[in-house]
Amino acid sequence: MLLSTRFIIIDDDEINNMICAVTLKKISADVNIKTFLDPAAALAHIAADYANPDEDHKAILFLDLSMPVMNGWDFLQRFNQFDTAIKDRVKIYILSSSDDRRDLDKAKSDPNVIDYLVKPLTRETIRQVTESQNKG
Fold it and tell me: Hey, which of 18, 23, 82, 90 would disulfide with 86, CB 3.0 to 4.6 Å?
């Protein structure tokens, strides 16, 4: 069972975005999934959709690290400047093909990153995310 029904996927790889969306829809058909190839567009979406204090929706965000123009680290730097009300509504998971320990350590040091996951997104990965959200 999914705790959240809203997901944001940020990756410059369309195929990975499709894999994530299909995997999520296999678990729950009524999920709301927004995919972004451009992290700047995702930031604009988050700023617009999660800033209203009257809205109570939350999202789980899967973020790739290696992207051109704005990489995942750049995204996190800009995301960290958002108001706390926005940051509290978006739970970020790094979803990367990198298994570099330095990336893992850097991600774990960011207060807005919940966990570091290695691609591809699988049912097991979603189970882990759901369990961590239930604990939090």
Answer: 82
Let me know if residue 47 belongs to a domain.
yes
CATH number for the domain that contains residue 46: 3.40.50.2300
Output the CA–CA distances (angstroms, integers) from residue 133 to 12, 86, 102, 130, in the order listed: 26, 17, 25, 5
Q: Using an 8 Å Cβ cutoff, are 109 and 97 in contact?
A: no
Token pair 């189970």 in the structure block, residue:
127
pLDDT in tens, 100-117: 899 999 999 999 999 999
**Please, what is the angle between helix 39-49 and helix 72-79, to 10°?**
20
Please list, residue by residue across 58-75, b when 16 or more beta carbons sit within 10 angstroms of its beta carbon and e when fewer do. Answer: ebbbbbbbebeebbbbeb
pLDDT in tens, 51-93: 887 777 889 999 999 999 999 999 999 999 999 999 999 999 9
